[in-house]
Amino acid sequence: MSKKMGRPKLAQEELRERIVTVRFKGEEFDLIQKAIIRSKRSQSEWIREALVAAARAKKF
Questions:
Q1: Which CB contacts under 8 angstroms, 24+ apart, belong to 44-50?
Q2: Do 45 and 52 form a contact (C-beta atoms < 8 A)?
Q3: What is each CA distance from 47 to 11, 18, 59, in whole angstroms?
Q4: How far does Cα 52 stand from its chain's mean position?
Q5: In angstroms, rounded to a whole number, what is the distance separating the alpha carbons of residues 1 and 19?
Q6: Cβ distance 60 to 54 under 8 Å?
Q7: In terms of C-beta distances under 8 Å and separation of at least 24 residues, what long-range contacts does 52-55 make, across chains too?
Q8: CA distance 6 to 13
Q9: What angle do CA 57, 10, 35 make, to 5 degrees?
């Protein structure tokens, strides 16, 4: 049997199951993009970490 092609499956604990769509004003997006570039992380990773950190800090 030949080896399967494509991306290997993630472990169950690594799966991300929910998708959130959000809209930003131009200046908000530019500000966020600059922070993402400085962090050298992916856009998804930066946004996920920022939101989780804010939620844990109970800022809202």
A1: none
A2: no
A3: 22, 14, 16
A4: 10
A5: 35
A6: yes
A7: none
A8: 20
A9: 40
d(CA 55, CA 48): 11
Residue 37, by phi and psi: left (phi above 0), alpha (psi -120 to 50) or beta?
alpha
Structure tokens at 60: 């809202």
Residue 36: how many other CB atoms lie within 10 Å: 17
Structure tokens at 33: 């993009």
Q: For residue range 11-20, list pLDDT tens digits in order.
A: 877 777 889 9
Segment 26-51 shows an average pLDDT of 96
Whether the per-residue pLDDT at 1 is higher than 70: the answer is no
Residue whose pair of structure tokens reads 């966020």 in the numeric block: 32
How far apart (Å, rounded) are the C-alpha atoms in residues 27 and 34?
11
